Amino acid sequence: MKKLAASALLIIGFVFGSTAAIAGGDPEAGQQKSQVCQACHGTDGKGNIPTYPVLAGQYADYMEQALKAYRDGGRSNAIMAGIAGPLSDEDIEDLAAYYSAMEGLKDLSIK
Ligand code: HEC
Predict the structure, then answer these.
(1) For residue 18, what pLDDT band results from cuts at 50, 70 and 90?
(2) Backbone phi, psi, residue 67, to 5°
(3) Using one digit for the tens of pLDDT, what is the confidence trace for 46-86?
(4) Could you tell which of 31, 35, 36, 37 is best to mutate to test the pocket of ligand 1, judged by most ligand atoms within 8 Å of the CB?
(5) Cβ count near 62 (within 10 Å)
(6) What's residue 19's pLDDT?
(7) 40 Cα–ligand 1 center, Å
(8) Which residues contact 87 (CB under 8 A, 6 or more apart)?
(9) Which of 36, 64, 68, 96 is the least crowded, having the fewest Cβ atoms under 10 Å away?
(10) How far is CA 30 from the centre of its chain?
(11) Does 7 score more than 80 pLDDT?
(12) Predicted confidence band at 24 (pLDDT cuts at 50, 70, 90)?
């Protein structure tokens, strides 16, 4: 009986552990993978020039959709298509986790 309880816990732990991994990317891995992005989107994710969008504080699911759309052709932009082309779903989730955890803009100056 004890054995059964232990294996039940193990299964529960496994199921929850793995859903967490599926649902959210790994922000630390995302930081590593963001090196190439920083040239345009900035080390702080806020964009080096106004035409490079702010990524810091963006919703993770929005960012995942945007990157998959660039990669799969649903959203066309020559620069981002080239960048997103080689990214796996896991890369995209990690990058989204990293940028969404960053502090975003506080004052958008839009009134
Ligand atoms: C050479 C410059 C450059 C690099 C490098 C770059 N980007 Fe971009 N990124 C852009 C530009 C320009 C846009 C705006 C494209 C558009 O109008 O759709 C953009 C748009 C995006 C968007 C959509 C933002 C929005 O608000 O819809 C995301 C998400 C994004 N980039 C993520 C990344 C990630 C992640 C990386 C690194 C893997 C990266 N970018 C690397 C230039 C760059």
Answers:
(1) very low
(2) -65, -40
(3) 999 999 999 999 999 999 999 999 999 999 999 999 999 99
(4) 37
(5) 11
(6) 42
(7) 8
(8) 67, 71, 95
(9) 36
(10) 7
(11) no
(12) confident
| Six token digits for residue 102 | 């960053």
Distance 92 CA to ligand 1 centre (A): 12
Nearest to 98 by CA among 18, 36, 24, 22: 24
- Determine the residue type at 16: F
Pocket of ligand 1 (CB under 6 A): 36-37, 39-41, 51-53, 55, 63, 66-67, 77, 79-80, 83, 95
Structure-block tokens of residue 80: 């981002």
